[in-house]
Amino acid sequence: MNRIFIAGAGTMGLDIALVFAGAGLSVTVRDISDAIIENAKAKLDGTLAKLKDRKKLSPTEAEAIRSRIRFTVDMAPAKDADLVLEAVVERFEIKEAVFRELDALCSPACIFCSNTSTISITRMAASCGRPDRFVGMHFFNPAGTMKLVEVTRSLTTSDETFRVVYDLAKRIGKEPVEVQDSPGFIVNRLLIPMMNEAAFLLQEGVASPEDIDKAMQLGANHPMGPLHLADLVGIDVLLFACDVLFEETHDPKFRACTLLRKMARAGKLGRKTGEGFFRYH
Predict the structure, then answer these.
(1) Who contacts 102 (Cβ-Cβ below 8 Å, separation ≥6)?
(2) CA 212 from centroid of its chain's CA atoms
């Protein structure tokens, strides 16, 4: 596991590339347009500059990491990869198309991973020709500092594939946990309903956003309240995750709060739009 191909140059894909490169691996990051790639390069250079300014990397270390990451709009370099990791938009149809294209290019030995936070690993594994060599590798945002990686088995993942990816997570400095394929895996299975229930509390007038968050910070020792966390995640992302959990389980406890749907329709998506449950400057 020395050559990594990452499909998706967004925030997660870029941060994951930095983690792999920081551990000495060669990384190719692919996205669909030159504009996206140029933006990703600029963000990567900015991140490395900040790490140098904060004395977390020496100039030599930063240069070495940067030299291990290359960018492309072409899928062809995936043919040389030992492992492919998908970090594209959280839509099954898009992920499926990416994996089908990669399956035709990559060597039979190449392992496929998805960074999905909600979509079934078994469903994605069934969409390509290597279901035994398919596994979930879910990093958390920001991937550079969050230690956890959920390594998720599908019903068809081989023991060898799981062990290789689990050991790789440790090799790059992460703390992996083993998860069986289930809606939301571990963290989101617990976290999404908490944020959703906080929205219900607000919708029902039980307490203000400030007091809901303060209660969980001081009463449960959470570093961030659930509504501030929802704003950080993105109201649209939270709503999508609620809908996926509900569709997968048909359990009413996962039904999305109506307030979330209204906020998404109004464009109040949290930090990224400047307003969600709170206002941001």
Answers:
(1) 5, 7, 75, 78, 84, 112, 128
(2) 27
Return the number of other C-beta atoms located less than 10 Å from residue 211's C-beta: 13
| Tokens (6 digits) for 263 | 């906020």
The torsion of the CA quartet 105, 102, 74, 90, rounded to 10 degrees, works out to 180
Tokens representing residue 10 in the block: 């967004």
Region 36-56: what's the mean pLDDT?
Answer: 95
Closest CA relative to residue 174, chosen from 202, 205, 129, 137: 137
* pLDDT score at 281: 83
| pLDDT tens, residue by residue, 224-249 | 999 999 999 999 999 999 999 999 99
- With CA atoms as reference, report the closest residue to 14 among 121, 168, 142, 137: 142
Residues 168 and 201 sit within 8 Å (Cβ to Cβ): no
Estimate to the nearest angstrom the gap between the alpha carbon of 142 and the chain centroid: 9
Angle made by CA atoms 14, 18, 24, in degrees to the nearest 5:
145
- Residues 245, 118: Cα–Cα separation, whole Å: 7
Task: Give buried/exposed letters for 92-112 (b at 16+ CB in 10 A, else e).
Answer: eeebbebbeebbebbeeebbb
pLDDT above 90: residue 118: no
Positions marked catalytic = 117, 138, 150, 188
How, if at all, do strands 175-180 and 148-153 pair? parallel
pTM of the predicted model as reported, rounded to 2 decimal places: 0.92
